[in-house]
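Why Sigma-70 family RNA polymerase sigma factor? Reviewers of the renewal asked for a concrete example.
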Amino acid sequence: MKQDAGAQQPDWSALMRSALAGDQRDYRRLLELMTPVLRGVIRARASGMDPEWCEDVVQETLLAVHLKRATWNRDLPLRPWVYAIARHKLVDAFRRRGRSVHLPVEDFAETLPAAPQPDGLEQRDAGVLIAMLPDRDAALLRCLAVEERGHDDCGTRLGLSPGALRVALHRALQRLARLRQEAGQ
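Here is what the prediction returned.
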């Protein structure tokens, strides 16, 4: 069995792989190793909560690990997966209790999605199609979609009342759809 680097504790991932292959002794050993670690993590995060409450969260976490063990990706380390489950169970327990939850963002930094980046090709293609429209339609779509200005601002810039802007936008979008269809996009 593999050992953690610099530690004498058995590797949780190796134990789980063995357990998933049917070795009940390795699964029992894994749970025995996991329990005190989870207990310490949950008690540290739930400072001020009574030990029984913390133990309930530990048991919920162990149950979730047991029920979801087949979903763990065997190519990834087990500990981060288990810790994520523990965080979720802790948050759920706080919610049930009605307490506000404040967890350090560092705990989630690796799992926070990056801000979506605009697709350069999509913007280029939209610009090409918009340029094929009549000037007024192109100016309207650039103002609303490309520059992301509001209807009032675009209406003022183009000299359109709110009703006229809606009609012009509808017609511009119809023309754009036809152009897109003709271009095969």
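The radius of gyration is 28 Å. This is the kind of structural detail the renewal will allow us to pursue systematically.
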